[in-house]
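Task: encode each sequence below as structure tokens.

Item 1
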Amino acid sequence: HKVASPQTILENETVAFIADTNAGQSMANASSTIVDFEDVEHDSHNAYNAGTYTIPVTGLYKINSSVMLESTSAIDIGEVMYVSIKINGSSKRIQNYREGDVSDSDNKHYSMQISALLSLNKGDEVTIQVYQGSGGSLDLFNSSQYNSLDIHKIK
């Protein structure tokens, strides 16, 4: 008597990923840049490589990410920034779409968070991308406390 097929066991196992970055990665101007969360704390299925997480098991996933730009005065009123979750290269969620709030020489940190509950298929490729339109490249703040990604299969 068979209790469960291998596929059933696979569908019920824990899938979890936790990583951050303190590398101060450069975010190009006027384009989406994939964030590489290179400091991997936990990757249950060894599914992450250079900014891309490949879904190992079809299911419902909770994705959370936070990024913060290095202190800058380069973002002025009307200049846009946002963070997105892309699945297989296409935007699935965009959050923290915002514009610079002042035109002055004061340096400010800009942080953005994104969270989504998504139905994903085995083999889907998940990336977190940052868009900023300040007129030049900007770096992520070089502290892992502010730049993180976690992905967890909940069902």
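Item 2
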Amino acid sequence: GVGEPAYYQWRSRSGCTFCFFQQKIEWVRLMRQHPEAYADAANYEKAVAYYQRAVVGSADSFSKLLASYSIGVAKESAGKFEEAIRAYEEAVNSSGSDFLRPELLMAQARCYEALKQAPKAIELYKTVQDKYASRAYYSGAASAFEKQLSAGSKL
């Protein structure tokens, strides 16, 4: 048989060295098994440059969408919330983004929340809650945020 690739000793899926969406334990295993790659994973600017090349070089709209989304994730993770909002907006406006739209809007709302722009965050959370209520994960988006605000959260 072909056998199992070596990366499955520390990863649960795909052969990527790191991914913004990997499980926490996979970050720990990456740090233990590949410390140089772990250090490189925190280099958000390098990740953004990689994804920007993917946006330009991708022949299909789906790859461009995912690359734009990943730019937003990297910018958000680096604390560059205004840049992240723009990247998420680019992804929202991409062809074929319908399936990812609620997550993109939630991501924008998180960024507005981090920027202390509660009204804009609430507007986006309400959009998600109203349009995607049939998806359990999104059904209480605005309500949860407003509850957090009324409980005295500093936003």
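Check on item 2: DSSP finds eight helices and no strands in the chain. The chain has a mean pLDDT of 79.
End of task.
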